[in-house]
Amino acid sequence: MRHLIRHMLAAVALVVSTAAAAQAWPAKPVRIIVPYPPGGAVDVVTRKMAAKLQEQTGQAFFVENKPGAAGTIGISAALQAPADGYTLVANDTTYALLPHIVRKLPFDYDTALIPVGAYVFAPMSVVVRAESKYKTLAELIGTAKASAGQVSYGTGGAGSAPHFVSEALGIAAGARFMHVPFKGAGEATMAVLSGTVDFQVASTPGVMGHVKGGKARLLAVSGPKRLAQLPDVPTFNEAGVKFAGLMNFTGLWAPKGTPQPAIDRLQKEIAVAMASADMKTFADGLASEPGHWDSATFAKDLRERTEFWGKVAANTAFERQ
Question: Same CATH fold, 122-221 and 27-121+248-313?
């Protein structure tokens, strides 16, 4: 009996010590893996959130870019780390594309990662260089209809969310565009600014710096209404294309097995961050909405988006990776 009691006490002590350690999160620097090159919307927003979390918790949060293979290289790196709350992965709606663009994922899409929280909701926009001859979305689409495949657009890669949104836009408008994939969204933006490609469909956080700097213009944005920050830019529907598109987000995931107290603390800190004046100003500056989703809402939206992207994939010509 004494032997059994000792084992029971040891087990209770282990549970208590583990819970205490988790509740103390973060007790050391936290790594956030961005599975894309620097300069894109996910990278821009994640770096701001990391700085805010560091400010709030007093612990270092640092971003590490690990691009490649539609984001699966960075995700796999996060899954190889201990599930202790000290390695997270950032992504956007592209994550919901993975089952449709990768033949065999190196992880279980449904269970490997826990969606912790999403924030900074941004419309997808049609971007051209400031000197572009296309002044409206109707002009761009008109040229594409007249010369199929001659109007080009750049993306961060085949199978990315901008790729699928661009193709869906073309389908809705009855136009065919020429897809030019690059190594990342930031590189695609540089191609637009240099005139290498005609346009880009991008989440607003990744391009607003160039818009404000007078180097780029937005022809239209997704969503049900115009942005308060850009009242002269019409929605896709207002521009003559019956395609609402969708709002993008940036979010954080944690590897399966991450202690629940750490996840709960991170959700709380995300909510505090997004309620702060400076994060609201930051989101406003990126022509984005500063809200946030908790884990349950985030998981529900991902299920719905995964189904939506499956329908788009069925009507988009591309070679699965």
Answer: yes
